[in-house]
Amino acid sequence: MGKLSQEYRWLLPSALEASDPGRRSTRDWLVDILVFLVGFGFTLYGTIDLLRPEPSFLVEQAGTPTWLVWTDFACATVAAVGLWFRRTRLLIPLAIYCLVISTFTVAAGFTLLIVLFSIAVHRKFSVLAIFFLGITATNALFPFIRPEHGRDYWWTAAWGTVFLLIACLWGMVVRARRQLVASYRDRAERAEAEQQLRVAQARATERNRIAREMHDVLAHRISLLSLHAGALEIKPNATPDEVTSAAGVIRASAHQALQDLREVIGVLRDDRPEGAPEPPQPTLGALPALAEESRSAGTKVSLDVSVEPDTVPAGTGRTAYRIVQEGLTNARKHAPGAAVRVNVAGTAGDGLVIDIRNPWPISGGASIPGTGTGLIGLTERAALAGGRLSHGRTPQDEFALTAWLPWPT
């Protein structure tokens, strides 16, 4: 059965054909009703006209035997009823049946043209060519079986072939148009699917960016909180002024952490003007404030920026700021109280170099959760910006965090 299906697959309906007549649309029903009325209407009218003593329409067929007229009517009626199944796999059997009766039928003239048109629309060109050659051959036999009075053989055969060609060409035009519409629909669906994929990818990229921003911003603030809370913990005999000062720094850092978190989450909102910068967007110009904030928390920071912040591209400046921020955060985590040296230098064309160094930590207390993830995020951030980042222990017994970022001319 499987082999038989493969062998005759070329006879099966194409993708443009409705698969089930019971699932016809309203338009399909209207078209099928009209097709049946045209096919059977011509059959009925032609039969009645031939049964008259003097036909008014089919004058050339006058004198046709009555038995042949009724035989033609019966066969044409079966063909007209078969038009209801022209959207299914029964189209080929119907076409073969019409091919047989086309040698003598007059009443099924329109039905034959409709079947030929349906094959041109719903079947491959090879099937149409075979059926057209077959019906052209039977059309050549028709004038011998039912000659027309007053017309010679070639006249009858030529006009029959012309009508067959018109039906074929019309069906091929309709099929080509449907294929064009189907290709446009397929392109539109693919474009929509690709657009949805791009939107999903953009959302995923934005979520990753927000996660990095949240880590970079909050890790800095929370490390300040941890530093001052630890100072209160190890100094139970601190003076009221020291406690008040530490509590004030903790409160300010917590307030600033909440403010930074609101700004980071704010990028998810759609009410921002198009093209407006997404907060937070600190650049190299904000490094002095960042260093002063670390100094107020007790970290000894030496900042040396030998470039003009306004000349550095905004994207490069943002990435450099995040690298310095993470470097100061790591120094507070792992080497509390140590002096940190931050150098930012470079020129357009050669790139921007960020170098952060502090003494290698001798010992540490309880580690803060998330240790190591910041450096991984910075490495990825630098790579996305087209740069590189390295970190580790130096021969001078220091921890060095060095990054290079491209600075186009």
Automatic annotation (TrEMBL):
UniProt keyword annotation of Metal-binding present: no
Pfam families, per the entry: HisKA_3
InterPro entries associated with the record: HATPase_C_sf, Sensor_HK_TwoCompSys, Sig_transdc_His_kin_sub3_dim/P
Catalytic activity: ATP + protein L-histidine = ADP + protein N-phospho-L-histidine
Membrane-spanning segments: 29-47, 67-85, 94-119, 125-145, 152-173
Chain segments annotated as coiled-coil in the UniProt record: 174-205
GO MF entries: kinase activity
Keywords carried by this UniProt record: ATP-binding, Coiled coil, Kinase, Membrane, Nucleotide-binding, Phosphoprotein, Transferase, Transmembrane, Transmembrane helix, Two-component regulatory system
SUPFAM superfamilies assigned to the protein according to its UniProt record, in alphabetical order: ATPase domain of HSP90 chaperone/DNA topoisomerase II/histidine kinase
Domain of life according to the entry: Bacteria
Enzyme Commission designation: 2.7.13.3
Enzyme kind, highest EC tier: transferase
Ranges of residues in domain Signal transduction histidine kinase subgroup 3 dimerisation and phosphoacceptor: 206-271
UniProt-recorded name of the protein: histidine kinase
Record organism: Paractinoplanes ovalisporus
